[in-house]
Structure formats: structure tokens, C-alpha cells
Amino acid sequence: MLICTLGDLLLDVIVRLAQPLAPDADAVAVTHVGPGGQAANVAAWAVALGAEARFIGKRGDDDAGALAAAGLAQRGVECCGPVVSGRTGVVVSLVAPDGDRTMASDRGVAPDLRADELDPAWLAGCDRLHLSGYSLMRSPIDGAALAAAGLARAAGARVSVDLSAWPVIRDFGAERLRARLEELAPDVVFANEAEELELGGPLPGTAWILKLGPRGARFDGLELPAQPVTAVDATGAGDALAAGYLVGGPALAIATAARCVAKMGAMP
């Protein structure tokens, strides 16, 4: 199976706090730096689960971009897309002692990917195309996402979307996003409860995967509990779940999310 993903390749900086932050104080923490970004995470987990994966996105020619691309390649993912003069995005994830996390995201040049920069060969042989929801709510990458979906479908691939983040949906507009999703007609949509609520409910005629955090996930009506695990870092757990589902279905999705939560970092 070849899974293609389109969206962001970023540098993840994860800070796991041993104690709460306080003004004018120095909190003890453990840090982790590595490649990240929703689409890149799904591709890396897909390879770890036995699939082939190809990431498509734009990155800068800076040190952050070189480090992120090298980390993705080391995980067996083919990295496609233009490298341009500019800033690769960085995400800082603050992880509380209980594993909950808050993210500060800078996407850099990633949203600047244009449809005319796509090479149809990047979608050749694709069985699944997974789109980051972020790629549908910024221009010009939204045009690239729709064009990639057309190329993938022409090759017989199924298309999935992760809604990404409820504040982004709020700022973009739920009605606008629903209209865009109806135009795209994805086979599968991944969402958490806040994103589903912000969007106004599931998209009819689409397999709907609802991520329930520590309670597990609901797969188009089938609810499975999360596997027992000591939570270390929830960063990327939803992306791991998506990869598991695309490669092997609900049971593998739950198991892969547990693997992700049990360690630091969004990638395997």
C-alpha cells in the first residue's frame, strides 16, 4: 500500500513540563526536537506500520527544513515538493505532566504550495491520499490539495481529510469548510469532538472517524476504547490513529495511537 499525504513538514519542539509554568520562574522540563507536521506524521507512522509513504509539501531552505526533511527520510518516507528560500515552520508543544499538550504553531512557507507546483508523478501508484485540514483552509495550498485529490482519484485512490483544529475552523468559517469538503467529497474524515462541534456535525455520505482522546475513538459508529497506557505525550496521537486506520482499520488505529502517546514526539 502506498499512502500519500499533503500538508506540512515542520520542526517539532516538544517541552514536557515537570511542574506548572509560573511567571518569572524556571520550570524543570525535558525537551525533544524532531520532524513533525500533521501530514508528515501520518506518513511516518504509515511506514512504521508496513506501508510505503510519500509526503508532499513545501519547505524552506533553512536549517529547520533540512533537519525535518532528514528526519522524515530516516523514517523511510519519500519527501516530495519544492524547497524555496524562506522559513520552514516550527511547532512548539508544551506538554503538561499528565500528557495534555498546548501547541504554538508557525507554518512558515508550507501554506504557499501551489497547484502548478505539483508533479503528477508524486501521486503515481497512490492507494490513499491523506490531506491535512490545514491545507483546505489557507491559500494557495487549498488549490494544491484539491488538485492532488483529483490526480489521486484518477489513479483510483481513496481520499481522507483530518479536520486539524477547531480554532482554525472557527476563524475560516464552518460553512466555508463544509462547502469545501462537499466539493472534495472525501471518503473518510477524521475529527475530534471540538472539531465536529465547530463544523456543525458529520458530513453525510462520508465515513466519519471521531477521535475521543483517552476514551478511544468512534469509527463510523463503532466505538473502541483506548488501550491502557501511561500517557507521556499526546502530540501526534491523532495522526498515528489516522495512519493506523488507513493501513489496517480501527483496531490498528487504536493500537498505534497508544504507541504514540507512550513516548515523546509525534513520530515513530
Structure report:
The protein has 268 residues and is of the alpha/beta class. 32% of the residues lie in helices and 28% in strands. The protein has eight helices and 15 strands. The strands form three sheets. A nine-stranded mixed β-sheet has the order 6-4-1-10-11-12-13-14-15, sandwiched between helices. A hairpin with a 5-residue loop joins strand 8 and strand 9 (101-108). The protein is globular, with a radius of gyration of 17 Å. The chain starts with a strand and ends in a 7-residue tail after the last helix. 46% of the residues are buried.
Characteristic terms for this protein:
8 helices; alpha/beta; single chain; 15 strands; 4-stranded mixed beta sheet; 9-stranded mixed beta sheet; globular; 268 residues
SSE succession: EEEHEEHEEEEEHEHHEHEEEHH
Largest sheet, described in full? 9 strands, mixed
Roughly how many Å is the radius of gyration? 17 Å
Our estimate of the beta-strand percent is: 25-35%
Strand tally, please? 15
Q: What is the terminal separation in angstroms? A: 19 Å
Q: Give me the secondary-structure category.
A: alpha/beta
Dominant shape: globular
Instruction: Indicate the mean pLDDT.
Output: 94
Map the helices and strands.
Blueprint (H helix, E strand, L loop, with lengths): L1 E5 L3 E8 L11 E8 L1 H11 L3 E5 L2 E2 L2 H12 L3 E3 L2 E2 L3 E8 L5 E8 L19 E5 L8 H14 L3 E5 L3 H7 L1 H11 L3 E5 H7 L7 E5 L5 E3 L2 E3 L12 H12 L1 H12 L7
Parallel strand pairs: 1-4, 1-10, 2-8, 4-6, 5-7, 10-11, 11-12, 12-13
Antiparallel strand pairs: 2-3, 8-9, 13-14, 14-15
